[in-house]
Write a structure and sequence with these properties.
single chain, 171 residues, mainly alpha, 57% helix, elongated, 10 helices
Amino acid sequence: MGDEDRGPVSLAEKLDRLFQERSRERGKSLSANDVATDINIRAGEQVISGNYIWQLRKGKRDNPTKRHIEALAEYFGVPAAHFHDQQDAGSGGAAADRADQPPELLEAMQDAGVIAMAARFMDMSAESRTAVLEMIDRVRKLEGLPDVGSTTGNGAANPMGNSGESWRTAR
């Protein structure tokens, strides 16, 4: 399989592809300053600079804030998750850790809504995470969905474990 078949992997490649597609749609080249100006005008404030977008596109920077990702995603009409899925099967790390997870869990982890919830969830205290999981369990029950395990259990039935610290506890 050639490089063109594997799809973009890095944030820079994904952003560059979006720039190229938008440039083709417009019939003229799109600059990082064009994108930054439009994002900032829509927001009514300074959200991102053209220089920073250029650095992201060229791979000189690769860790944008959530706000930057959301602004770029909205501008290009893609879900924010588009920029987060940077799995490279040969690199090990997070992709390798996920390989033994149930397919439905892996699919859910790719969903933009699930990613948005996880982003909000991850910096909460253990007590708050437990409370949120209990609320989710109650809503699942109201919808007639099956129980996925205790929010205070040993982690075996609940993919998030006691405090939501890891997907790897569910096997």
